[in-house]
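Postdoc handover notes: sequence design on the structure in folder B. Input C-alpha cells:
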C-alpha cells in the first residue's frame, strides 16, 4: 500500500473565483505531478470543477467527423463554433448537419468543431494539496468523493504557503502546492470527516446570514413604501393613526416577507441541526452555560480548524478581543477597519451578556471577579482629556472608571480569558480527533494491504 501511494499522483490546486468584479477571468489552476512530469489544467467554470472531480475533464481534443454521432459526449465538453447564417449555403449546411453536432442558443446556432479524446481528473490513489480556507466547497467534494474512490485531500496553512513563495506572485501557487507536498508533506493537514462537517457549518452559516439580510432588506423597502405612501399623497389626504401601526399591518399582510421569514427559519433550523451534532460542539461548547448554538455557530464557522493559530494571542486577535499596544480594547467605529472577525466579536459580546445574566455560572463568576479587581484598582471615577476622533487635533474630556466603564472593561477581560481557555480546550479536542481519524485511516490501510 505504501509503495502505491509513493507512486501516486500529486495534484496541486489553487482555487480561485472564476471571474472578478472587473470581469477578469481567473480560472482555478491545477498542477498534476506524475512521476516527475507536470501537467497544467485550467478549470474555467464550476462545471469544469465538477468534471475534474468526477474524472471526466477533457484535456485533449480532435476534429469532429462530418457524420459522427456526438450524443455520447456531454454538450459542454464539446468545442462549438458559431454559424454565420448570412453566409452563402450556411442554412443548407446547417440543415444537413446531424442533430448531435449542432445546437441553438437563442437566435444563434452553433456547430461542433472539436470533440474530447482524452479526459483527466481525480483518480484512485491521487493526493490533492490545497490551501487551507480556499475553495471549501471544492475541498468538501474532493475529500468526500475521495473516500469512495481512494483519493486523499491535504491542506496547508496560508502562512506556510506564503513562506515558501519566492515572491508575492500567487499565479504559480498550484505548482508550489504540488511541489510542497512532494517535498514537505508533514506541513499539510488531511481533510478528515470532522473538517468536512466544519465546512458544511460554514456554508450553512453563510446561507443563514444571506437569508437574514434578504429579510431585513425587504423590511426596509416595506417601511419606505408605507412612509412614502403616506407623505407622497397628491390628494393631500392623510390617514389617521401612526405610521408604526401601518408598518406592522403591512408586514403582517406581506406574502413576500412571510416567505423570506420562512426561508430564514429553515436556514436557522438547518444550521442548528448541523452545529448541534458536530463533535466539537458536543465536546467543547455544549457544557458552557450561556454559549448556545447560535452563539457557537459563527465561532465554529469562521475559525474552522483551531490549529491554524500558532498561539492563543493570535486566536484572540482573530476574535477581535485582544487589546492594542496601549493595553486598550478595540472599539469598532463606523468607517474604520478593525482587526478580527466582527461576527465572532458580536457572538462573544452576546456570550458576555449571558454571563452577566448568570452570575452563578463559571464565566459569570469570572466576570464578577474581574469587576471586583478593576474596581479595587480604580476605586474612583476620573476625568481625563482624550483626542477627539470627530475633531482631528482637538481633545475632549472623558470620564473613566464609572460603574458602566468598569463593567465593559471587565467583560472584555473576561472574554480574553475565555478565548485563552477555549484555545486550549479546542486544541486538545482537535489533536484527539486527528489522532483518532488518522489512526482509523492507517488501520484501514493495513487491512487493505493484508487483504
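Designed sequence:
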Amino acid at each position: 500500500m505504501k509503495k502505491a501511494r509513493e507512486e501516486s499522483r500529486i495534484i496541486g490546486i489553487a482555487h480561485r473565483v472564476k471571474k472578478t468584479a472587473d470581469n477578469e477571468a481567473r480560472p482555478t489552476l491545477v498542477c498534476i505531478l506524475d512521476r516527475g512530469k507536470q501537467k497544467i489544467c485550467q478549470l474555467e467554470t464550476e462545471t469544469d470543477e465538477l468534471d475534474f472531480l468526477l474524472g471526466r475533464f477533457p484535456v485533449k481534443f480532435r476534429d469532429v467527423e462530418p457524420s459522427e454521432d456526438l450524443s455520447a459526449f456531454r454538450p459542454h465538453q464539446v468545442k462549438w463554433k458559431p454559424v454565420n447564417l448570412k453566409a452563402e449555403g450556411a442554412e443548407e449546411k446547417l440543415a444537413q448537419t446531424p442533430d448531435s453536432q449542432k445546437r441553438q442558443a437563442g437566435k444563434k446556432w452553433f456547430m461542433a468543431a472539436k470533440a474530447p479524446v482524452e479526459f483527466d481528473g481525480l483518480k484512485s490513489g491521487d493526493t490533492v494539496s490545497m490551501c487551507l480556507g480556499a475553495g471549501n466547497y471544492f475541498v468538501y467534494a474532493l475529500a468526500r468523493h475521495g473516500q469512495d474512490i481512494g483519493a486523499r485531500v491535504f491542506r496547508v496553512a496560508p502562512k506556510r504557503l506564503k513562506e515558501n513563495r519566492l515572491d508575492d506572485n500567487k499565479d504559480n501557487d498550484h505548482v508550489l502546492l504540488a511541489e510542497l507536498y512532494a517535498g514537505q508533506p508533514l506541513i499539510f493537514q488531511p481533510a478528515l470527516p470532522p473538517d468536512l462537517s466544519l465546512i458544511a457549518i460554514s456554508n450553512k452559516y453563510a446561507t443563514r446570514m444571506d437569508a437574514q439580510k434578504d429579510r431585513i432588506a425587504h423590511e426596509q423597502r416595506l417601511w419606505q413604501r408605507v412612509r412614502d405612501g403616506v407623505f407622497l399623497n397628491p390628494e393631500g389626504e392623510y390617514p389617521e393613526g401612526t405610521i408604526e401601526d401601518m408598518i406592522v399591518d403591512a408586514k403582517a399582510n406581506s406574502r413576500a416577507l412571510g416567505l423570506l421569514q420562512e426561508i430564514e427559519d429553515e436556514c436557522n433550523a438547518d444550521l442548528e441541526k448541523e452545529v448541534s451534532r458536530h463533535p466539537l460542539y458536543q465536546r467543547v461548547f455544549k457544557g458552557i452555560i450561556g454559549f448556545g448554538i447560535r452563539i457557537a455557530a459563527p465561532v465554529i464557522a469562521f475559525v474552522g480548524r483551531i490549529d491554524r493559530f500558532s498561539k492563543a494571542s493570535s486566536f484572540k486577535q482573530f476574535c477581535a478581543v485582544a487589546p492594542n499596544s496601549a493595553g486598550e480594547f478595540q472599539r469598532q467605529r463606523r468607517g474604520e477597519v478593525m482587526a478580527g472577525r466582527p461576527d465572532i466579536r458580536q457572538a462573544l459580546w452576546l456570550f458576555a451578556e449571558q454571563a452577566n445574566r448568570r452570575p452563578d455560572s463559571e464565566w459569570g463568576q469570572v466576570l464578577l471577579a474581574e469587576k471586583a479587581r478593576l474596581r479595587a484598582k480604580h476605586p474612583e471615577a476620573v476625568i481625563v482629556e482624550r483626542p477627539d476622533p470627530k475633531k482631528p487635533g482637538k481633545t475632549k474630556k472623558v470620564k473613566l472608571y464609572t460603574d458602566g466603564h468598569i463593567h465593559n472593561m471587565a467583560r472584555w477581560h473576561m472574554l480574553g480569558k475565555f478565548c485563552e481557555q477555549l484555545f486550549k480546550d479546542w486544541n486538545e479536542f482537535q489533536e484527539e480527533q486527528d489522532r483518532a481519524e488518522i489512526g482509523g485511516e492507517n488501520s484501514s490501510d493495513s487491512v487493505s494491504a493484508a487483504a
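Context for whoever picks this up: The chain has 15 helices and twelve strands. Don't rerun without checking with the PI first.
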